[in-house]
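INFO worker-7 received task bundle
INFO bundle size: 2
INFO processing item 0
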Amino acid sequence: MEKRQLLATAVLALAAAGAQGQETTWRVEFLDVLGRSTHWSPEPDPPPPFTAVTLSGLVKGEDRNRDGWIDRSELSELRFGHDGVSGNYATCGTWGDSGNNCTLSRFVFAPEGPLGPSFEMTGQWNQDLGGRMESIVRTETGAEYSYAFYRSAYGSYFWTEDTTLRITQVSAVPEPAAGMMLAAGLAALMGARRRRPG
């Protein structure tokens, strides 16, 4: 009986360890954000009208403390917008690319919060090439998303009372190392149980 209890305890511990190493990816979409973009020209045409668009992003992380929120320390990837310049905001301040600089001053994410899904971020991405500021991208969800590319393109988008948030879980794959550890542990326990006389 004691052996069975020991085996059950070990199996549960290994299963818990396997369940913890799980990163999840979500797609974040803000629908009906009002805005417009235009290309630079020395003799600009009249600006296009404002239209409703969808701004989207990607969040990848693991809720390690099981509080229902992904905070900045639990992020592995954070991307937002359609500017083609901004990279992974989760790495802001951790890499030394002299041409790119990013800040992430606010981040809140709960895919299933008590009052519904929540995603908030305030960040900026600057690209400086050859001593000249090539682009500035600013994001403050709930307020504004904008970009300005030197002599190229400009865009400004604003949240309105009609803007809604949609969060879709894309994947949740256990880490391979955790799965292999669980399988190896179970095999070892079963082998030890067979070798010992009952």
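INFO item 0 finished
INFO processing item 1
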Amino acid sequence: MSITSFLHTQYPASQPAVDDTLFDTAALVFTIEKTFDAPVDVVWTAIDDDHAWKWLPFPGTGVKYDSPARGVGIVREMGSVFGPFRVLWVEKEKFWRYEPNQRITFGVVSGNWMQYLLVRQYGEDKFFTDLGDGRTKVVWKVAVTPRLPLRFSTWFPPAWRAAYLIGGLGPLFNRRVAEVARTTRPQPRSMDTNGIASAEPSNHRAEEGAK
């Protein structure tokens, strides 16, 4: 096997995360939460669209889907998935819960050399709550079982919470939420057959330069 092949090969997770039992068996389970001054559909889009996680302080980071489809059973790539950085960290995540604007749950089923050497199992469960008045609360539960070289890190849950709160939901994510809010049209109103104003689906992108 060539070095290039080795770096790109996906290895099955030692303990694939495919259901909620992960949150009972992982070596470390912790939760963080944060409230955003943005509507729930905006916060959801920032976390779930094709630009998700590009704000992380790691080269080439983001997500890649095989198709535009979203839903239970979908597998996506996450990590340093762009350009030459793919040789660093790429994991495949499978969704077993997908409830738009409400809840999303997924776990790692395979990873390249870096993921495989450092992590035995990993998964996330995110709750989105519409607080009204254009505010959204996100509760983010993480379950992880590091391999032996990093097992000691489970002794310091506050450090994990701080890293996820600052890196995952911190200033860079706030900037992404603001960007989504700017480029999303206000939810239009239309009349139903009874002459009563009703909401049409949102999340339509404003055309660039449109007034």
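INFO item 1 finished
INFO post-check item 1: The CA atoms of residues 102 and 128 lie 5 Å apart.
INFO post-check item 1: DSSP finds six helices and ten strands in the chain.
INFO worker-7 idle
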